[in-house]
Amino acid sequence: MADPSLIGNSAKISAPLSGDAALYLSARGTLAADKPQTMRATPQIDNEQAQWLEQLVQKGHVERGFAGRLFTSGDSREPELAGLRGAIAGSLLTVAFALALSLPLGVAAAIYLEEFAPKNRFTDIIEVNINNLAAVPSIIFGLLGLAVFLNFFGMPRSAPVAGGFVLALLVLPTIIIASRAAIKAVPPSIKEAALGVGASHQQAVFHHVLPLAVPGILTGTILGVARALGETAPLLMIGMVAFIADVPRGFTDAATVLPVQIYLWSDLPEVGFQSRTAAAIIVLLLVLFALNAAAIFLRRRFERRW
Amino acid sequence: MNMIPQTIQTPTTPDILAGKPVKILARNVDIHYGDKHAIKNLSIDIPDRAVSSFIGPSGCGKSTFLRAINRMNDTIPGCRIAGDITLDGQNIYDRAIDVVQLRAKVGMVFQKPNPFPKSVFENVAYGPRIHGLASNKTELEEIVVASLRKAGLFEEVKDRLDHPGTGLSGGQQQRLCIARAIAVNPEVILMDEPCSALDPIATARIEELIDELRQNFCIVIVTHSMQQAARVSQLTAFFHLGTLVEFGDTGKVFTAPRDKRTQDYITGRFG
Ligand SMILES: Nc1ncnc2c1ncn2[C@@H]1O[C@H](COP(=O)(O)OP(=O)(O)O)[C@@H](O)[C@H]1O
Ligand SMILES: [Mg+2]
After folding, report:
1. What is the secondary structure of B71-119 as a DSSP string?
2. Does A157 touch chain B (CB under 8 A)?
3. Which of B110, B130, B189 is the best mutation test for A, with the most CBs of A within 10 A?
4. Mean pLDDT across chain A, nearest whole number?
5. Which of A176, B84, B149, B193 is a good FRET partner for A93, with 20 to 30 A between their CA atoms?
6. Residue B68, in any domain of the structure
7. Do B100 and A200 touch (CB under 8 A)?
8. Does A246 touch chain B (CB under 8 A)?
């Protein structure tokens, strides 16, 4: 024992109420405790346990409070111990990886296609394909990830790297299309002005057009991130759907993400997971609202200032 | 290219030009946009240190030819040019010509004022900076101030050089664009209807400025206003349906045009 001097003293400890007990207590008013056990809403609580709970309540030992554990612990088989920290970390790692790949690639592709690519059949085909890719169901990207990233390249299953690659492919068309629209929206007169004082085409694009397109590109990127954060289907295909209690620490650790965690919890039989699922949904929705609000803010803030 | 004569002798040679140095010379220029024949077999000699204006009904190719002089048409897909245009005897469509250097020598002012969405200072400093015209900050500041002075704008903006150029009035913005063009030491300044978006007072201010700039630059201005052409230019070229109908001494073009089409246009019969 770490501190033997504690022996013999009494100390106050608190422990989370199990989901069954919590449900029993909340249903107490409508369903009398003296009903037979099998007729109550919580048949898992036997009469003896019910009495203990009643005693605890009478002594004032049962408190309600914010379940901060939701954000501080990883997944667990016990609903009262389960938290979102692992899923949040997994989402962050996966989306960060996806963004690190797709943002530079997407913006570079957009600049090239919009400003430098010759107009010919080949670039026409590429353009059509990018537009079509944006409409491909996400599960297909998951299948591609399974076949290419896991089976062919041998990336670790359930890991943010694999998820990141899949989500990067998924949001790439969105980012390219949004960036091209943003670049196109910069008035040609700005580029002409730069060319008119002897700037090269590259200088005109990188000194003048691109900076003006940045807000639009960011807006598109944020919407892409929001989409990536909410994606479930493709990640199921690459095994990010396993029960993982540890919080992932790196891109190759097994991980899951927020929407998949919701899917997992919603499927569990324990009643306590119902409220966990609801809480996780609220967390995901709040994050998505915040991202969309940021996108709208950016769009408003930088709308046509020339 | 060296065979092209350097003294003025086009069929439409204006008398007052005889013996004057030619700055821009065009021979048998044809310009197409895809199938559209926008400029037809055009030849012209444009003198240095004078204002030459291009007039004509809209769609007759004035802007097209103007943009050929600094190769701005290169940026338009489907635009093809044939024939020769020389600047000081050098063919500007030669393979050896660096378009970027050409555009530094032949500045342009556009129809709608188009300052960069940056500060007044940055607007003027951009050109000298990319061309390496200033070796330090003080030199750059000197160039900016001198250019703003030449464009007659310095007194109005000296307290707000760090304010956005887009916040100036329309006339000030256009003078800012002229300052920006002057800042890279051009030899020619092309202006495409520079006053069409401005009120009469701002227009008068720009016209005054053009008259001053004529001492140091070769100026070519496209205008839809015959009065403006009469006020600012020494030479006037009349364009019609892609051909250069007449080019000569502004006074003569307006009082005694040689061609019937010119006469019809200046007397308001069409256009
Ligand atoms: N980018 C372009 N693509 C196709 N046709 C053009 C383009 N620019 C101008 N044109 C055509 O070329 C002709 C001359 O145009 P322009 O030089 O702009 O005339 P102006 O400046 O005299 O009004 C017009 O008939 C116009 O329709
Ligand atoms: Mg025009």
Report:
1. TGGGGSTTEEEEEEEEETTEETTSTT--HHHHHHHEEEE-SS----SSB
2. no
3. B130
4. 86
5. A176
6. no
7. yes
8. no
pLDDT over 70, % of chain A: 91
| Position B238 in a domain | yes
Q: State whether B116 and A192 contact (CB < 8 Å).
A: no
Average pLDDT estimate for A156-176: 93
Residues in chain A with CB shorter than 8 Å from the CB of B115 are 193
Query: Nearest ligand to the C-alpha of residue B66?
Result: 1
Q: Are strands B36-47 and B22-33 parallel, antiparallel or unpaired?
A: antiparallel
Ligand 1 pocket check: which of B39, B64, B108 to mutate, most ligand atoms within 8 Å of Cβ? B64
When the candidates are 3.90.550.10, 3.40.50.2000, 1.10.10.10, 1.10.3720.10, the CATH number that belongs to A85-302 is: 1.10.3720.10
Query: Mind listing the pLDDT tens digit for each residue in A11-29?
Result: 777 777 776 777 677 666 5
Question: Which numbered ligand comes closest to the C-alpha of B59?
Answer: 1
Tally of domains within chain B: 1
**What tokens does A300 get?**
């408003």
CA distances from A70 to A85, A178, A252, A253 (A): 7, 36, 24, 21
Q: Which residues of B touch A201 (CB under 8 A)?
A: 75
Q: B89: phi > 0 → left, psi -120 to 50 → alpha, else beta; which? A: left
* Atom in ligand 1 nearest the alpha carbon of residue B39: 14
How do the residues of chain A divide into helix, strand and coil, expressed in percent and rounded to 5?
65, 0, 35
Q: Write out the two tokens for B6.
A: 């350097």
CA distance A220 to A222: 6
CA distance B11 to chain A (A): 31
Which tokens in the block code for residue A138?
A: 């996400």
A110 vs B167: CA distance, rounded Å:
31
Residue B199, phi then psi, degrees to nearest 5: -80, 170
* Among B77, B117, B127, beta carbon nearest to A305: B117
Digit-coded pLDDT (tens) for A297-306: 888 887 655 4
Q: Which residues of chain B are under the pLDDT cut of 70? A: 1-19, 270-271
Boundaries of domain holding B153:
48-63+98-266
Distance from CA of B183 to the nearest CA of A (A): 9
CA distances from A222 to A13, A95, A175, A218 (A): 44, 11, 9, 6
Angle at which helix A85-111 crosses helix A160-185, to 10 degrees, equals 40
CATH code for the domain in which residue B210 is found: 3.40.50.300
The answer to whether residue A107 scores a pLDDT higher than 80 is: yes
